[in-house]
Design a protein that fits this description.
This protein is mostly helical. It has one domain: Orthogonal Bundle (Tetracycline Repressor, domain 2). The chain is built from eight helices and no strands. It has helices spanning 2-8, 12-18, 22-46, 51-68, 70-83, 93-118, 127-147, 154-168. The longest helix is centred in the middle third of the chain and has 26 residues, at 93-118. It is globular. 18% of the residues are buried.
């Protein structure tokens, strides 16, 4: 809870005056990140270019967003993994709102993947599997970057992500607006 207070800039007592429990605090903080992710999708959807170019821009934008929030995401992931076994039946209104927001974001990613599949630019694997893999790849890469400060650089992470995607997911050469 001290880490959350530090990240948010508020005293622990102030936080508990506004939230019922730690889960609600996490959910409120994650809600802001979900809003930012939705904005990223809006920006990228408005761009011109192939579906593959849009997916590439999405990966880079999400990577930046996740890096900017790496401390919170690191706390969230460790808390999530620790408490995954202790699943609760009660879900707060904050958590339910986040689940709904995440499902909408996931549906947008799946639609982008389907577009790339229809253009025969990425492998024909169930788009929800690819969406989960892509998100997990970015999240885990940021956690590695956060935990291995100095041992790995952002440009190395970008290289590794696109190396992995290029050899396992993408079927066509990546053409970006910079290369045109």
């Amino acid at each position: 809870m001290e880490d959350i207070a530090e990240i948010s800039g508020f005293d622990r007592r102030t936080i508990y005056n506004h939230f019922k429990n730690k889960e609600d605090v996490f959910a409120a903080l994650i809600s802001g990140i979900l809003d930012d992710i939705d904005s990223v999708f809006n920006d990228i959807s408005a761009q011109k270019g192939s579906s593959l170019d849009k997916l590439r821009e999405l990966v880079l934008s999400l990577l930046d967003l996740y890096i900017d929030n790496s401390q919170l995401l690191n706390i969230f992931m460790s808390e999530y993994e620790t408490n995954e076994i202790k699943k609760r039946r009660y879900l707060s209104a904050y958590t339910l709102k986040n689940i709904s927001a995440y499902k909408k974001i996931e549906a947008r990613l799946v639609a982008m993947i389907k577009d790339a599949q229809e253009e025969k630019l990425v492998v024909n694997v169930h788009p929800y599997i690819l969406a989960g893999m892509l998100n997990e790849l970015i999240l885990r890469s940021v956690i590695v970057l956060h935990n291995q400060k100095g041992a790995i650089r952002k440009k190395d992470i970008i290289h590794d992500i696109f190396e992995l995607l290029g050899k396992n997911v993408v079927k066509a050469p990546l053409i970006t607006s910079e290369k045109i």
